[in-house]
Design brief:
The chain is 36% helix and 22% strand. By secondary structure, it is an alpha+beta fold.
């Protein structure tokens, strides 16, 4: 009989498609996962995973085992979680995968009160801006905007329902280069840009009185959207150029005078973020508590 922990390690690695990724998802070292999979292969007498330096690939036997184990493991998880219904308050770990903007602008208004209301729940937040397979990443739910939601997911609003993208620059920069009056004027300015994980740069789109304008500006600084976004803001404060970002992110800099709003009548509006989670599995008790908590919030329009 194979050890259940070894089977779970195999499923985790197979879902994540790599030992390093599985290590992050399970909070277990990659070496320990590798030992567990090797031990399982020895007991079964068959290779389950072909390993390379960068990734893993299931053998035919490994794929067959995963196809049978996946629903079985889901049932085990559901059975264990069912015990939560006998508790006065739900307990367990809730793992969320969210963009950096949500970690900065949405969750601070939610997390402290939620954890205070549910002391038995431990919340783990992974902030990244790329597309993520929630199950492979070991997460229960995520936050994304509607254009990035997968079709087989259940989604519900979280946070403000309308947001705006804003532009800001320092007063010193505007005194040197002038204040743009139309989005096309940005082509003459130093514009600080963000780049997605895919390599695409962020589009600059504007709207006013039914007129839609899209420009592709250039500038001296491009950063990967996510952890380096604050560098764009600090560069703008220092007078390097014009920064595009969520209005809520830039609002403290506008209020303090460190940045000046640019082309505000043209700032585009877009719908707010959504909490999403797989619809093909039972909802764990910590996630159900989080969903109920989110539904009870009076989100601003």
């Amino acid at each position: 009989m194979a050890d259940l922990d070894d089977l779970n390690a195999f499923v985790t690695v197979a879902r994540a498609k790599g030992f390093r990724e599985a290590s992050r998802a399970s909070a277990t070292s990659a070496s320990r996962l590798s030992e567990a999979v090797r031990r399982l292969e020895t007991k079964l007498g068959v290779r389950l995973i072909n390993r390379t330096t960068r990734s893993v690939m299931l053998t035919e036997a490994g794929q067959s085992l995963l196809d049978r184990l996946d629903p079985a493991m889901a049932e085990v998880e559901a059975a264990l979680d069912a015990v939560n219904t006998f508790r006065d308050t739900p307990a367990g770990t809730l793992r969320l995968n969210v963009p950096v903007s949500a970690a900065r602008l949405v969750l601070p208004h939610i997390v402290p009160a939620f954890l205070a209301a549910h002391p038995g729940i431990k919340l783990e937040v992974i902030a990244e801006d790329g597309f993520v397979d929630l199950l492979a990443a070991g997460c229960d739910a995520g936050i994304r905007y509607d254009e990035r939601l997968e079709q087989d997911m259940i989604a519900m609003p979280i946070g403000p329902r309308t947001q705006r993208f804003a532009l800001g620059a320092s007063q010193a920069y505007l005194e040197r280069h002038g204040l743009p009056e139309h989005p096309r004027d940005l082509l003459k300015h130093s514009c600080l840009q963000g780049r997605f994980a895919s390599g695409a740069t962020m589009a600059w789109e504007f709207e006013r009185d039914g007129e839609l304008v899209k420009v592709t500006p250039s500038g001296p600084l491009i950063v990967r959207i996510g952890g380096a976004t604050d560098l764009l803001v600090e560069a703008a404060v220092a007078g390097t150029g014009i920064v595009p970002l969520f209005e809520d992110w830039l609002r403290p800099y506008f209020d303090s005078g460190k940045l000046v709003p640019v082309l505000e009548p043209w700032w585009p509006r877009f719908s707010g973020p959504f909490l999403y989670y797989p619809g093909r599995r039972l909802v764990p008790a910590p996630l159900r508590a989080f969903i109920d908590f989110i539904k009870a919030q009076p989100w601003p329009m």
